[in-house]
Design goal:
241 residues; alpha+beta; 4-stranded antiparallel beta sheet; 3-stranded antiparallel beta sheet; 7 helices; 41% helix; globular
């Protein structure tokens, strides 16, 4: 005779049944971002599901936006799903009968910085960028977020110092092996290696990349004096960045 208890029991059984299907691949999904009213903090999240059909329905879209908003209450760093986030996910799992999962999430800012967000219209890729300094405006934030989202190849570090040493070493090894294979003497091979490393940084370091809206400028060129990029995060459904 207890309707609410009956609902809870049925819900628990439904979720248990869904948990038995957790091995089903969830390679589709959406990205969403949320930003605080003062622009000092932002969250970006990826939620996954089995089919693009579900990823594009209104319930899933609303749930992902809800999760991004809930994540915004977390401290800066990686997002750990709380009870509210899990409840929102479980509701969509029960409705769609698909293996809906929290993919990943990051919160940035929360201090004396300004953050911007952008998610592409298809909901598959987005970015947040965190800036420090004076003279930051919405246009600059939007331009930087769109660049991080659209740049090909995707940036892996803000500046050269942020590129992992093992990545640089591997590029050096490959470049030198190619030069030696072409019969170049050692001194010429070394010059070729340095040139290719400079080119690598221009392609993969954010500040050195040609700006997507005007390739005659680098990203560094569009930053006002005294403004620095403190962090950036790019998320793409099914991708590593």
């Amino acid at each position: 005779g207890d309707i609410e208890k009956a609902k809870d029991t049925m819900r628990a059984k439904g979720l248990a049944k869904m948990d038995s299907r957790a091995d089903r691949s969830s390679t589709e999904g959406r990205v969403a971002a949320a930003r605080s009213d003062d622009g000092a903090k932002a969250a970006i999240v990826e939620l996954n599901t089995e089919t693009d059909f579900t990823a594009n329905n209104d319930q899933f879209k609303e749930m992902v936006a809800q999760v991004a908003g809930e994540a915004l209450s977390s401290e800066a760093g990686e997002v750990t799903p709380n009870a509210a986030i899990q409840a929102a996910i479980d509701q969509v799992r029960l409705t769609t009968k698909e293996n809906v999962q929290f993919g990943r999430g990051v919160v940035v800012g929360g201090g004396a910085t300004t953050v911007g967000t952008y998610v592409h219209f298809n909901g598959k890729v987005g970015a947040v960028v965190e800036l420090e300094g004076e003279g930051i405006n919405d246009e600059l934030l939007a331009d930087l977020c769109m660049h991080v989202t659209a740049a090909a190849p995707s940036p892996i570090a803000i500046d050269e110092s942020g590129v992992p040493a093992d990545v640089v070493d591997k590029e050096r090894e490959i470049a030198k092996a190619q030069a030696i294979e072409q019969g170049k003497p050692e001194n010429i091979a070394e010059k070729i290696v340095e040139g290719k490393i400079r080119k690598f940084f221009e392609e993969y370091v954010l500040l050195k990349q040609p700006f997507v809206k005007d390739d005659k400028l680098s990203v560094c060129d569009i930053l006002p004096a005294g403004v620095t990029i403190k962090s950036f995060t790019r998320m793409q459904v099914g991708g590593v960045g």
